[in-house]
Amino acid sequence: MSLPASPAPAAPGLDVARVLPVFVLVFVDVLGLTVILPLLHLYAAAYGASPAEIGLVAAAFPLAQLIGVPVMGALSDRFGRKPLLLLSQVSTCIGFLLLALAGSLEMILLARLIDGLFGANLATAQAALSDITDEQNRTRALGLTGAAFGLGFIFGPMIAILTLEMTANLMAPALSAAGYSFLSILLTLFIFKETLPPERRRTVAAGRGAVPLRLLQNPLLLLLLLLMFAQQLIFFGFESLMGLFTLSRLGLLGQANALLFLFIGLLLVLVQVRYIGRWSQRYGERRLVLLALALIGGGLLLFATTPAQPHPFYLQRNAAFDLRDQAQSATEAMIGDLEVPLPADGNNGVGGILWLLAALVPLSIGAGLIRPCLNSLMTQRVSPQQYGAVLGLSAGAVSAANAAAPLLGGVIFQAQGVAAPFLLGGVLMLALLALSGPALRHLPPGPARPPAPLPD
């Protein structure tokens, strides 16, 4: 897809002194989250949970976020970012402490529900960044939160593994996550400065309904939210099932897949720190969204057609033995016992791995672009007093997709084979490009209608 450059005035640089604390907050918050995520199924399994119950534990957080985050985002428009950020972080810390002290499966579920209902950390941080940026540099700032998220996903699982190796006790990673969450509370209390002063806050008039629901009446905003949900459903399904696919096609086990996720994370951080700001100023967010859809769709089709060629050191009997010794993965736990065929011995080589790495490049670049650009476009459709509400809706759409993607992907995986979820995902992403392209190309450059005056 060609991207003709559209002239734009030079944008002022980011206010590093105000943006950096938000970046650090998001990074520390995500560290706590990603210390827990790779081990969450083990907490449930420790109390004899069935695969369905483990799936319920995994889905509890995103389902609770679907309800809680839009409301918390709207409340941050009314009461300010700092109080809601502190409430989110305190609830996250309490959730991790409950997880560390859990004595039953019900307590684990309660811990995840508390964190999900009140843990609007990322959406509130994005709203704070929107407060202190303009349309010329907002995408770059939102990209930095994505980069912080990517860095957290690189280092968090490493910390989780090291903590568990040193202590052999599931309480230790949860306490470690609670420690990072407590650190984020201290950073918010003493470093973060309120970005939404009282005179800019929205008050909700009685009888007018919740702000998030009123925003859904805007058809262009609804289109952007549907795009956010659909692309996350497809991409998170890819992330959830990638390890099973690479095992079946290339014979890669946990350590090798961890390196692949590290490769993806580094590409995401590179795009979001170095390139997204200059590309958004040169081409505009609308063109970047279309490019991202094309890159993810094409990357998924390339990924699905990876040749079945095990890596040079692969031996089927060794792989089968290692699989029996390794803990069941979170994805397998969520979707039941999958029968994943191991590749046969012979035909070893590096061709399959090189093909896979080539497919991951457009996938990662597209994933690095799409969410910051969509969020930036959403903030352009509303008044500044509604940033928290609209970004809360966006986070809710992502949470709904995260809850559904592994389950839907697992059903397709079992019914149609290892490549089917990725082939279908690629086709659907390109269909999204074709269907949404005309609407996005004609999207007005600014708010769809003049912002309504603040109620008395």
Count of distinct structural domains: 1
Which secondary-structure class do the elements indicate? mainly alpha
How much helix is in the residues?
Answer: over 70%
In terms of DSSP E residues, the strand content is under 5%
Tally of helical runs:
17
Q: State the name of the first-level CATH class.
A: Mainly Alpha
Q: Gyration radius, to the nearest Å?
A: 22 Å
What name goes with the CATH superfamily?
A: MFS general substrate transporter like domains
CATH fold field value? Growth Hormone, Chain: A
Shape: globular
Biggest sheet layout? none
User: Helix-strand pattern, N to C?
Assistant: HHHHHHHHHHHHHHHHH
N-end to C-end Cα span: 48 Å
Pick out the low-confidence regions.
1-12, 204-209, 326-338, 446-456
CATH level-two architecture? Up-down Bundle
Overall mean pLDDT score? Answer: 80
**What is the number of E strands?**
0
